[in-house]
């Protein structure tokens, strides 16, 4: 795998902490101190698939290839308005591609799972150019009466185009079933045969439990991929971590013992955008000219499942 282009797209509506404190019993000070989040971009009259297509087109433009040259589209997504067809298939039509398309759901870890699938396709020789993307609207899952979860999230999409190469140094994904700490159930159509009681249950998250699991998994995954790649923590130029919240990221940074310059963040601007957060931050670094050929990037993400994953990839664009 080698990354040849990145892109991202954000909804137009900015929701500040002060806006939230007009809607519920919270404050800018509480949200900033506990999460580091100041604003988030949220879906209003947009469609998530339009944002996904915008991110995809920007990644193609950055890569300098046409949509017709794509051999596969893999999209990480948890919810969107369509249960079927896949977000990847919708994006395929919007950008004018013609290739196999699939969505996967590994919650906030989905982008690293998508990279794992892409690497398998590249290694088997079944694809040359793959669009690997994530598009998420967690603000459609949360209970807007639950101040402990709704303040955390934002929406957005991120994408990258990868091609044949040897830049991926190590990748690890895992899952250990624990549905009780973090889950969201969708409401399905009733049938004449359903006998169980059905009620809408919004996103549930045991915040402190998730916090601890996220820190433990991320530190352990990063150690594993560093060791698999024969690298030390100081060899990494940037740790691009799932932007869940500032305190989780800062705990990981301290437990891992790296300087803050090595751990870029944009959670203050966008909140937790689930699996879209890593490709969105990668695109920001790319467009700001912060990435140099040969830089070593470590990605790490964690989320419902409980899933987690990490990888190390050299920037050779
Ligand atoms: N504004 C004001 N007060 C609040 C708010 C809010 N938005 N939310 C909760 N509180 C109150 C609680 O009601 C509680 O009040 P009480 O003491 O009177 O009962 C108090 O603040 C403390 O609540 P805690 O839940 O103990 O607060 P905590 O310090 O744990 O912070 C938080 C909560 C921010 C959710 C924290 O647990 C956390 O960051 N967890 C990780 C969650 C996360 O980021 N998950 C995403 C990772 S996985 C993924 O991406 C899906």
- Rounded radius of gyration (Å): 19 Å
- Just give the CATH class of the largest domain: Alpha Beta
Superfamily at the CATH H level of the largest domain?
Thiolase/Chalcone synthase
User: How far apart are the termini?
Assistant: 11 Å
CATH architecture of the largest domain: 3-Layer(aba) Sandwich
Overall body shape: globular
Could you give the order of strands across the largest sheet?
Answer: 1-7-6-4-5
CATH third-tier fold name of the largest domain: Peroxisomal Thiolase, Chain A, domain 1
Mean pLDDT: 97
Instruction: Sketch the major β-sheet.
Output: 5 strands, mixed
- Beta fraction of the residues? 15-25%
Distinct ligands: acetyl coenzyme *A
* N-to-C series of helices and strands: EEHHEHEHEHEHEEEEHEHHHEE
**SS summary, helix count:** 10
Count of strand segments: 13
Report helical residue fraction: 25-40%
- What are the segments in which pLDDT stays under 50 over at least 5 consecutive residues? none
- Secondary-structure content class: alpha/beta
Number of domains: 2
How does this model look, in words?
This protein folds into 2 domains: 165 residues, Peroxisomal Thiolase, Chain A, domain 1, CATH 3.40.47.10; 145 residues, 3-Layer(aba) Sandwich (Peroxisomal Thiolase, Chain A, domain 1), CATH 3.40.47.10. Strand 4, helix 4 and strand 5 form a beta-alpha-beta unit. It is α/β, with parallel strands linked by helices and 317 residues long. It contains 10 helices and 13 strands. The strands form 4 sheets. Strands 1-7-6-4-5 form a 5-stranded mixed β-sheet, with helices on both faces. The protein has a 4-stranded mixed β-sheet with strand order 8-13-12-11, with helices on both faces. It has a two-stranded antiparallel sheet with strand order 2-3. The structure holds acetyl coenzyme *A. Acetyl coenzyme *A binds next to helix 2, helix 6, helix 7, helix 8 and strand 12.
């Amino acid at each position: 795998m080698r990354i040849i282009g990145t892109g991202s797209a954000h909804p137009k509506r900015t929701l500040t902490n002060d806006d939230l404190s007009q809607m519920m019993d919270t404050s800018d000070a509480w949200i900033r101190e506990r999460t580091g989040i100041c604003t988030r971009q949220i879906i209003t009259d947009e469609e998530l698939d339009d944002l996904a297509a915008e991110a995809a087109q920007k990644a193609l433009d950055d890569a300098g290839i046409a949509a017709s040259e794509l051999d596969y589209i893999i999209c990480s997504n948890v919810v969107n308005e369509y249960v079927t067809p896949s977000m990847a298939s919708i994006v395929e039509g919007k950008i004018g591609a013609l290739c196999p398309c699939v969505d996967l759901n590994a919650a906030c870890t989905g982008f690293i799972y998508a990279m794992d699938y892409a690497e398998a396709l590249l290694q088997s020789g079944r694809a040359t150019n793959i669009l690997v993307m994530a598009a998420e609207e967690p603000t459609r899952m949360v209970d807007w009466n639950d101040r402990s979860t709704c303040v955390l999230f934002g929406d957005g999409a991120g994408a990258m185009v990868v091609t044949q190469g040897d830049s991926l140094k190590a990748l690890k994904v895992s899952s250990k079933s624990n549905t009780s700490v973090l889950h969201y159930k969708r409401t399905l159509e009733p049938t004449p045969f359903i006998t169980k009681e059905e009620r809408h249950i919004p996103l549930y998250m045991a915040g402190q439990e998730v916090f601890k699991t996220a820190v433990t998994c991320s530190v352990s995954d990063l150690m594993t991929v560093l060791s698999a790649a024969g690298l030390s923590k100081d060899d990494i130029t940037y740790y691009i971590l799932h932007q869940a919240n500032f305190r989780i990221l800062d705990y990981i940074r301290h437990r891992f013992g790296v300087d803050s310059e090595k751990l870029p963040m944009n959670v203050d601007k966008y909140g937790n955008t689930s699996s879209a957060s890593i490709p969105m931050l990668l695109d920001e670094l790319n467009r700001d000219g912060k990435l140099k050929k040969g830089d070593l990037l470590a990605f790490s993400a964690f989320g419902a499942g409980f899933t987690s994953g990490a990888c190390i990839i050299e920037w050779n664009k």
